[in-house]
Write a structure and sequence with these properties.
There is one protein chain. With 131 residues, this protein is α+β, with helices and mostly antiparallel strands. It has one domain (24-124): Immunoglobulin-like. Helix content is 18%, strand content 44%. It contains 2 helices and 8 strands, in the order αββββββββα. It has helices at 2-20, 126-129; strands at 24-33, 38-43, 58-62, 66-71, 77-83, 91-98, 101-109, 115-121. It has a 4-stranded mixed sheet, with no helix packed on it. The chain has a 4-stranded antiparallel sheet with strand order 4-3-6-7, with no helix packed on it. β6 (91-98) and β7 (101-109) form a beta hairpin. The chain is globular and about 45 Å long. The N and C termini lie far apart (80 Å).
Length: 131
């Protein structure tokens, strides 16, 4: 009987460890045009999240290593699913760059489920692209 309990206990422990390793945190955000470049955490219902976004800019979220990287959608949105095992307490570094904007890079706290990262990016004008 003791052997059977040991097997059941080991099976349950392995199942628990396996399931907890699959948990993910979703980090959402939007890149919009602004006069000053910065990234901030806002509630998902913040009215600035409804402003027109900037499409096709590169967004990188890192914390010691890259947690998520990709381009914004046609509406300026980005979403990354990050394994909970990859996240540590403390801030993440948000970097946004691409032809239509000047680079934005700063740290923010990891957003809670009802929050998002709003990135204010300064648009380049044609005269600023020329030497």
């Amino acid at each position: 009987m003791t052997h059977a309990r040991t097997i059941v206990s080991c099976t349950l422990a392995a199942l628990f460890i396996g399931l907890s390793g699959c948990a993910k945190t979703t980090i959402r955000g939007r890149v919009i045009a602004a006069e000053i470049g910065r990234a901030i955490v806002v509630t998902e219902t913040d009215e600035r999240m409804d402003e027109p976004g900037i499409a096709n800019v590169e967004v990188t979220i890192s914390q010691g290593g890259i947690l998520g990287q990709g381009k914004t959608t046609s509406k300026g949105d980005f979403t990354f699913s990050v394994p909970d095992t990859a996240l540590r307490s403390g801030p993440v570094l948000v970097r946004v760059e691409g032809d239509p904007v000047f680079r934005v890079q700063n740290q923010v706290q990891i957003p809670f489920p009802n929050q998002a990262i709003l990135v204010n990016a300064v648009r380049r004008t044609p005269s600023e692209d020329q030497p």
